[in-house]
Sequence to fold (250 residues):
Amino acid sequence: MKIFSLFICMVMLCAPYVSAQKVWSSAKGTVTFTKTAFADWKLAANQDRISDSVWITRASTQSLFNIRKDTSYKTDAPSGTMWALGKTDSFSTHTYKTFVSLSGGSPQGLVGKDLVLHLVAENIYLDVKFLSYAGGNTGGSFSYIRAKADGGATSVPLTAAPAHFALAQNYPNPFNPSTTFGFTLQNTGLTTLKVYNVVGQEVATLVNDVLEAGVYHQRMFDARNLASGVYFARLVSGDRTQMRKILLMK
Fold:
């Protein structure tokens, strides 16, 4: 407890936002995905497998979810994604939210609007525009046009992150139930990112791996099983440590 208390009392400097590593622009190529009403969401043909970590689909009721991580809709679905109004040509200036939060509970209102989808695990931003979205929880149909990575829309590497040690403030904060951390490292090496409650008990391990310096890393924290309150995120790599105070509000 004494050691943990010392960490809490450390001065926590704010780190600047650093651009994502990859952007898929619709200007360089698109693909259209359609799930028809009452189609079997368990079949690959009815899942938009955008990346290794995100396969978007929808059952016959409720909203979108990521079948790669979940077996049904949840309030922060699709897991591993954040969404914003706008286009990827200005992705770093947008405000990102969960799909449900962005739509205000009425996804039909997003039809025809330019959106940016952030795939958190791969740190990819891509253009999306919904063409249709069935309402009333009947059938589960939807369709959209999105940027693709293959063919004419090869991922575009952006400027590498500076090789310094920094844990940015999570976004959003306060949050419910998920939030995203961004960080950079001064040296490549074993890195941990853990979350603790106010009495110093570890409640989640977000990173425990060898990570590279000079890369902007991001990890999502899902706190749906935790109580509202103050928590602390602690990043450790080599002899460097930094903490952030975060607030879960349900």
Notes: The first strand starts at residue 22 and ends at 24.
